[in-house]
Design brief:
8-stranded parallel sheet, alpha/beta, 8 strands, globular
Length: about 350
């Protein structure tokens, strides 16, 4: 593992030199990767980005969030209110292609409704298109109930196994193109995260083709907002190199303790571009608000933790440690609030508020 990590480090360092050398050529070209100077100028226009990956507590997955019958603006409004109160200014939110395919106009209206609610709470949104995590089969309609004590039992890959169906690539291209074209100038959107954890679920380099396609489709639209796909597994050398070289802003995931996480930042800073950590905070693995969030602020790295309000995603339970009777774990894995807005750990919320200047 150590040798593979060192090899990945070397590849990323070489990639960073390539990116820096090519950045001047890309400056001012709207359908090219942003230059280092453009990326840093964009980042400097924003306050330090803090927030969470957001799924309303009433939704088990992306389809339940976005389908017409289960879209829940009242809960979204209430829970984004909790975010505003502690100074969060950014939320990362997963879209879903089947919800668009089922009802294109309605889906985009609901996206706009979400953005209006978030904007009311002074929150920018980072939207995610594709995802290789958890369940590979998705069906339109009523979503399953959560499995007792199981982390993210209903979360859906997108497109998952549907990628093997005829016409899926064309549908996915139409989906990405339509959504980006509709919202390409929307100032309420901070960034487009094109693909969450490509290669997960043992796919590895099999996800490379779709990863390159979604960047190509997005560049063709040329939205005002930057494009990215977060690095997350340092052994995925081919995917990591492509993601780093083709992202306007470098985003990444890190659930390790502070010394290891800081090394990740030091490595990724060699690209010269701003960094946003779009997933961290897993208490039982040593990734905690009190150790990681102050370090991210010190390093001027955006800080978005996984999980916000405990709910149907069951992310208070650890990835690999289900609790069959559904009792509350001794220590929550993710999440900050109970449904009524009570903090799981008041001292964490006080720290978050302090770091956010609240």
């Amino acid at each position: 593992m150590k040798n593979r990590f060192i090899k990945s480090v070397l590849i990323l360092l070489i990639s960073s030199v390539t990116a820096l050398n090519s950045s001047a050529q890309n400056a001012g070209a709207p359908n090219k990767v942003w230059s280092v100077s453009k990326a840093n100028a964009w980042y400097a226009q924003h306050k330090w980005m803090t927030g969470a990956d957001f799924m309303p507590s009433s939704a088990i997955n992306q389809l339940e969030m976005w389908q017409a019958d289960s879209f829940d603006p009242a809960t979204i409004d209430k829970e984004l209110g909790y975010a505003e109160e502690i100074g969060f200014n950014t939320m990362r939110v997963f879209l879903y292609s089947l919800a668009w395919q089922q009802d294109k106009a309605g889906f985009k209206k609901r996206v706009n409704d979400y953005l209006a609610i978030a904007n009311k709470h002074h929150i920018k949104t980072m939207f995610v298109f594709f995802d290789d995590c958890w369940n590979a089969d998705a069906k339109i309609g009523k979503q399953p109930a959560p499995k007792t004590g199981v982390h993210n039992s209903g979360w859906l890959q997108d497109p998952g196994n549907r990628l093997n169906n005829p016409g899926q690539v064309q549908m996915l291209q139409a989906y990405v193109t339509d959504v980006l074209t509709t919202f390409k100038h929307d100032k309420r959107i901070l960034l487009w995260d094109l693909y969450n954890e490509p290669g997960n679920s043992k796919k590895k380099d099999a996800s490379y083709d779709l990863l390159t396609k979604v960047f190509t489709w997005a560049r063709a639209v040329s939205p005002d907002q930057p494009l990215s796909a977060g690095l997350w597994d340092w052994t995925f050398e081919k995917l990591n190199t492509y993601q780093a070289l083709n992202s306007d802003i470098i985003t990444y995931h890190d659930y390790t303790e502070e010394p290891s996480h800081r090394k990740t930042i030091q490595l990724l800073k060699t690209h010269g571009k701003p960094l946003i950590c779009t997933e961290y905070m897993a208490r039982t693995r040593g990734s905690r608000f009190e150790t990681i969030m102050p370090m991210l602020k010190q390093e001027n790295v955006g800080a978005l933790n996984w999980g916000f309000v405990m709910g149907k995603t069951n992310t208070i339970y650890a990835w690999d440690n289900p609790i069959p009777d559904g009792s509350e774990p001794k220590e929550w894995f993710h999440d900050i609030f109970r449904k009524d807005g009570t903090a799981y750990k008041p001292e964490e919320v006080e720290l978050i508020k302090k770091l956010n200047g609240k």
